[in-house]
Amino acid sequence: MSRQIKIGIVGCGHITAAHLNGFKELKEKGLLEGVSIEALCNPTAWKAESFRKRGEGPQQQCGVGPPGDPMQAAPVWVSDFQDKLPAIYSDYRQMLAEEAIDTVFVLSSVFTHHQIGMAAVDRGMNVLIEKPFTISVKAGWKLIEAARKKGVIIGVAECVRYNPLVRMIRWCIEEGYLGKVQFTIYLNVGGFWAPDKIIAGTAWRHKKLMAAGGVAVDWMVHFYHWLRFTVGEIAEISGFAPTVEPLRVIRDERGQLIEQTDCETDDTLSCNLRYENGAFGNIMISWAGHGEETSLPPIYYGSKGCIKGEQIILDNQKPQSLIQLFEQRADPQMKERFMPRGIGNNFTLEILDFLNAIREGRAMETSGEEGVRDLACSFATLEASAQNRPIKVKDVLSGKIADFEADINKHHNL
Q: How many domains does the chain have?
């Protein structure tokens, strides 16, 4: 019999459906044996109740973001994949004290991650935390050290790592198709949240003490992980992270103002990277930008060719599909390692890795340390902007440079 894993979920907001759909797919694949969600918790209890049983309870919130965004995942209920209905809580401390659980998913706002994570770890529970891992690098290391002492598994829900295309890019580079990676490029300006929308409809994302940073943290932990996974560790970052739109708003379909908030965090980022292996990179990303969106997919240039999105273009050859190349040339063991049972959903793969890490007593791919390393890149970007000089990521990771997060740590008693 598989080890029993009893889960409590804290935070039932827009991202919760994406995770529950992952559980549902694991059930359909026969990979959820011994796993049960025992409790759902949210400060606004009806949001937790809305995920409990299909056909009962409050209606789930409408998703936010552009089509295809995980926060627009299809509605799903715990009753879709298990018979036992979870208990409902509005206070995570009560849930941790009363429920016979051994594992906690922290899907709440980032400023609560270290508090809820630490409370669960102190009780000897395994913990998976939505990205960004914690409110600061210091908070992340404290949580990791506590988990080590307790001997529990702790990870970050960094879904980018489990994106099939990202995994194929990693394989392609490892197999030497590009030769030596020389530089990377990424550009995305404008888009769904431009020029001045409140991101994800949650104003706290624009407050430094609650979100740590704007696009440099909320979005760039994703892309820094993407680059670290495919190219290698980032040694140094220079650049700027300004606030282009100082006021963020929500408007209704008629354009009438519903909510507004001052923006304390960056909404735009322009930076240069130097990788430890000698490659370099350039990033331009913004939640601002009037008029029309401008975008390039992640691009890699190597000594033998380049990757642009889903295409690989080698010297003196026609463009070909990276997906087809992987399907034709990757060995079965690699395919099973990256996409077991042919699963292609990021969240399903992420949850499976976490559950297997618990079962096997090992770190998951997106361990807590991975989450802190992503944060260190984000904070190095913010330090570089504030100090107008290149910042070594290792100095942020070690705490040698921590000026930007000092007031965050003080506010949260870290």
A: 2
Residues 17 and 144 in one domain: yes
Please, which pLDDT band fits residue 1 given cuts at 50, 70 and 90? Answer: very low
Answer yes or no: do 172 and 74 share one domain.
no
The pLDDT tens digits of the residues spanning 269-319 come to: 999 999 999 999 999 999 999 999 999 999 999 999 999 999 999 999 999
Whole-model pTM: value is: 0.96
How does residue 159 score in pLDDT terms, banded at 50, 70 and 90?
Answer: very high
Residue 408 lies in a domain: no
**Radius of gyration, alpha carbons of the chain:** 21
Average pLDDT of span 252-278: 96
Q: Identify the domain containing residue 356 by its residue range.
A: 5-159+344-363
Domain assignment present for 401: no
CB–CB of 129/113 below 8 Å? yes
Tokens standing for 348? 């399903």
Considering the domain architecture, whether residues 358 and 304 belong to the same structural domain is answered as no
* Mean of pLDDT over the chain: 97
Give the count of beta carbons closer than 10 Å to the beta carbon of residue 97: 11
Q: What is the CATH number of the domain that holds 178?
A: 3.30.360.10
Report the CATH number at residue 51: 3.40.50.720
Look at residue 371 and tell me if it is in a domain. no
Which residues is 201 bridged to in the sheet?
none
Tell me what pLDDT residue 89 has.
98
Distance between CA atoms of residues 134 and 113, nearest Å: 6
For tokens 């993407």, what's the residue?
Answer: 226
Q: Which long-range contacts (CB under 8 A, 24 or more apart) does 296-299 make?
A: 296/185, 296/186, 296/187, 296/188, 297/186, 298/169, 298/184, 298/185, 298/186, 298/223, 298/226, 298/227, 299/184, 299/185, 299/186
Same domain, 74 and 132: yes
Measuring CA to CA, which residue among 150, 85, 84, 119 is closest to residue 10? 119
Do β-strands 294-302 and 181-189 pair in parallel, antiparallel, or remain unpaired?
antiparallel
Condensed to tens digits (0 to 9), the pLDDT of residues 85-116 reads 999 999 999 999 999 999 999 999 999 999 99
215 assigned to some structural domain: yes
Distant-in-sequence, close-in-space partners of 22: CB < 8 Å, separation ≥ 6: 345, 347, 348, 350, 351, 352
Return the pLDDT at 2: 63
